[in-house]
């Protein structure tokens, strides 16, 4: 990912100022929420955040153990996001960003998303990749990264897994963590592909 061309990323994102951001200042974000719809009552209960530190990729997952701890959870998430030069998400401009903004607003916390420096990978891949049944993250992983998830808990089942956790029922919350982790790592890999000097629809292992 650190060999990506920032100018190419900026062009594909249709965000000229993104080309001024160091690749080390990109922050990769994916959230899990209590509903896949909108509304002020939707909680973000897991936020996966990755960034480059030194020669390593650091991925931290913030978890909301119960709704009563939401403000502390959000403050921790804000702390991880505050130094971002730009955000990288998948469908984040229409979903993740707004769910976090709703909760920041509810607790009187300033928004972090006023900047235009936000690379939502859905849009450039939707424009450039043809001949696939859809442009979901899992489809792009399969077609472009050669990644096939094994026993993955899909995102639509994450809310129920969280509710089971809150109720003390044995559920699958650990699988939500793994699903989120792979989502974030895929953002990094797709950014590398997007910023590479070859066709966007070429698998990442090909020259």
- The helix/strand series, from N terminus to C terminus, equals HEEEHEHEHHHH
Q: CATH homologous superfamily?
A: Ribonuclease H-like superfamily/Ribonuclease H
Quote the CATH topology.
Nucleotidyltransferase, domain 5
Q: Which structural category do the helix and sheet elements fall into?
A: alpha/beta
Distance between the termini: 15 Å
Mean pLDDT: 91
Q: Kindly state the number of beta strands.
A: 5
Second rung of CATH, namely the architecture: 2-Layer Sandwich
Q: How would you characterize the overall build of this protein?
A:
Helices cover about 40% and strands about 15% of the residues. The protein is α/β, with parallel strands linked by helices. The protein has a single domain (about 5-195), classed as 2-Layer Sandwich (Nucleotidyltransferase, domain 5), CATH 3.30.420.10. It has a 5-stranded mixed β-sheet, sandwiched between helices. It is globular, with a radius of gyration of 17 Å. The relative contact order is 0.20. The model has no long low-confidence stretch (mean pLDDT about 90).
């Amino acid at each position: 990912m650190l060999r990506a061309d920032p100018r190419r990323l900026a062009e594909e994102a249709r965000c000229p100022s993104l080309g001024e951001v160091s690749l080390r200042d990109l922050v990769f974000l994916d959230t899990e929420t209590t509903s896949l719809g909108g509304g002020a009552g939707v909680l973000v209960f897991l936020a996966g955040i990755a960034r480059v530190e030194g020669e390593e990729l650091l991925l931290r997952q913030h978890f909301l153990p119960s709704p009563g701890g939401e403000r502390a959870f959000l403050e921790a998430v804000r702390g991880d996001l505050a130094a971002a030069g730009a955000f990288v998400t998948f469908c984040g401009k229409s979903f993740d960003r707004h769910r976090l903004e709703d909760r920041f607003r509810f607790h009187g916390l300033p928004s972090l998303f006023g900047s235009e420096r936000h690379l939502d990978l859905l849009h450039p891949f939707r424009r450039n990749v043809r001949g696939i049944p859809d442009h979901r993250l899992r489809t792009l992983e399969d077609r472009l990264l050669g990644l096939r998830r094994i026993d993955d808990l899909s995102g639509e089942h994450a809310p129920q897994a969280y509710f089971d956790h809150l109720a003390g029922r044995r559920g699958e919350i650990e699988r939500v963590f793994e699903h989120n982790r792979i989502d974030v790592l895929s953002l990094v890999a797709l950014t590398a592909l997007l910023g590479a000097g070859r066709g966007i629809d070429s698998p990442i292992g090909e020259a």
